[in-house]
Amino acid sequence: MTTAIDMGTARSGEPALLDLAELLATRLLVQGNSGSGKSHLLRRLLEQSAPLVQQAVIDPEGDFVSLADQFGHVVVDAQCGEAELQRVALRVRQHRVSVVLNLENLEADEQLRAVAAFLGGLFDVDRSLWFPMLIVVDEAQLFAPVMAGEASDEARRLSLGAMTNLMCRGRKRGLAGVIATQRLAKLAKNVAAEASNFLMGRTFLDIDMARAADLLGMDRKQAEMFRDLERGQFVALGPALSKRPLPLRIGPATSQDRGGAPGLMPLPEQGPEEAGKLIFTAGADEAPITNWPPRPTPRPRPPANDVLRQIETYRPSPAPEPEPDIPMEPEEREAIMAEILRELMVDPETRTRQIAVLYQDFTVRCRMRRLGRQSLSLDEFRRRLAVARAGASEEVTASEPWQAAIEASAALPDDLQSLFLFIARAGIERAPCPTDAELAAVYGSHSPSRARRLIGYIEERGLLVSHVDFRGQRTLALPTLGLETAPGLAQPRSAGLPRGARS
């Protein structure tokens, strides 16, 4: 079942429909020069989908605050501060309220920081709050620029990271990005590349026309058509719009557009003398003129010889003494390190992160607990991490077969030791043979076929024997340790039976 909304009229005269359910999974990119009708397109999209999905509008100019009067959007003034914006974003997802984030009263640097805080609050919520939500960002090149502008590098980095998270990782959290930009060349590639639906409006620069034609799969000769598009005309392509480039005209919007350019109007009739009095004479309700503070006198430049002498005699200030470690017994130190390892294993992304990143995280946590900088070497951490990934209980780790399994795992590459110990743990506990999916998860993969290849590699080293009986149940044995798992179904029954045993 699809939920189609009417965006306007196609060239053939038929309604131009947009599949909202597909849009939530594939995202949308809108490009067009100033005056091409991008904001009007976004307004039409917001009005048509308002009753169907929760919305959040990132509004740099305050053009969309009028949605509150007709559709009940709550206007959030970004001047409230970054911490408050994060809390507001959490409540927005919790109560499923459509909002407009108004940024018109902030400077460029403050706008980037506010957007980063608000999007971060929408992103970092509990899984139970991952409801579908449409995130519309007007003038997206301001918040995900290709290069630094008038804002600071830190603000740009925060905003770009938030926009990248929205477009790259937002789908699983129910966040669907709809971004509009004047030029693709101004928008960061990591943000633009994640959109699968495109609406291309009027543009004049050759490079922008060529990029728009490439995205739509059009011939370079056809790129000239983008110069001839009228205001409100776009070319659509994508799974939510059309499988082929489709010219369409955006339909009317019902809410008031604050961002429209003012129309022509005649000048007031008045003589030159009256006009002079108006601009040179202060009015009755005019605010007093603020005197600008005098510019400070510039500091005199020191002689070049003095500067060179300062450079030659410069000595860096001594580094501060590190905070002394808390004296503790070895048993207490081991218990704290084991607790830190358990905290790392709770994170579901731990299995896919590199060893060097995990080791850095581990050392930081150790310093926070005052264990010292050299709590464990990288090799010792790698061995302990393999044991932690195996998930063995204290009773198993205290047994002699487990110690023998640790010694035997040293003959394998580092990334396979945890897999070998996981199988050894199942053998010690006489548990059913782990499935291919379980083995792949321990290795840090989602591919059962990779788990089967790893089992084959360990078998070639003589440390493992795999046997599948006629019922399709597999048993893994460790001959050098005298351990064997109980039979277990490793894969679909038809795939695990020997040749000739399938019905």
TrEMBL record:
InterPro entries: ATPase_Atu1862_pred, HerA-like, HerA_central, P-loop_NTPase. Residues 10-111 form the Helicase HerA central domain. Pfam families: DUF87 (PF01935). It comes from the Bacteria. CDD domains: TrwB_TraG_TraD_VirD4. This is Helicase HerA central domain-containing protein.
